[in-house]
Amino acid sequence: MSSKFHLSAPPRSGFATDEDVSSYKAAARDKQAEARTRNTSLRLSSLTLDELREELERRTEETQKLQEEVEDATRETLKTLGCTYSFPGQCCLSRDSSEDSPTVSAHQPRMTQPLVCSLDTLKQKVVEKDGSSYEKEALGNAINNHLQQLSDLQLNKISDQPGKDTFSPQRAIMNLQAELQDLQLEKDVVSDLRTEDLITILGQEMACCQRQQLDLREDAEILRGQLEVAREQLFKAGEEKTCPQFLLEQKAQEVKKFQKLLQEKEEELCFRQHQTQQHLVSLEDAQTRCRTLQTEQ
């Protein structure tokens, strides 16, 4: 029901009863409920999916309850005026009533056509049975007021239809689901890029360590070759006994120097191997973390 349903004061013709007052109060409560519903629509954009579902169910129940209250109030009002509340399938409009009420259409609410039919029938009965001009005028005014209220209700519902279409809980849920999927895809892409960067860096470090190990091995091989040459020279000099003692001492010093240098290179090689082993352990840890991240995703 539209929140723009403006109700006029009960007619002071002596025909308004307690049921009329209760119907007006019910309509006022409906108006306040619609105002609260419009105010709550402003904060629906910040709710989660579960909260949106709960809000949708709650508003549906409130709408059904309000519709039942209005139907009950309308039924009581018609009973008070001496009319019977009939549904669309039981109301037969005459030619005169259809010509007098051009605002009735197929797009109106379920209870609009029965109300117009009953009010037109009431007007005919009043004109036929009642001879008092004052009572005729009072009842005519009451009927015209009800018809005017029905027309306002129909126009307000038609004008409020675009406003109702501006917010749709289902559309909001679909938008939130699409945003969630986009965020998940973005998170997966960022995680994949980080994993690829980490694997690339670890591969570069491993290649650098392998190159250093090859260089150290080549240096050690060169030193070993030089040491073998020096030993051969000393051996030949000892066999031939043509070299003086000075040359022997010099060669011995050179041999010691080469041995010391070889020992330093071997120590450096051991140190490099130790570093390489640490890099390999770090690489295994990084690969384990990568697999853990991929499993969590």
Could you write a compact summary of the structure shown?
This protein has 297 residues and is mostly helical.
Mean pLDDT: 68
Helical residues, percent: over 70%
Derived structural class: mainly alpha
Number of helices: 7
Which regions contain 5 or more consecutive residues with pLDDT less than 50? Answer: 1-16, 83-117
Terminal residue distance: 48 Å
Q: Classify the beta-strand content into a percent band.
A: under 5%
Number of strand elements:
0
Helices and strands, in order, run as: HHHHHHH
Q: Given the C-alpha coordinates, what overall shape results?
A: rod-shaped
Number of domains: 2
Q: Report on the biggest sheet.
A: none
Calculate Rg over CA atoms: 49 Å
Biased composition (Basic and acidic residues): 27-37
Coiled coil: 42-76, 136-268
Region (Disordered): 1-39
Organism: Nothobranchius rachovii
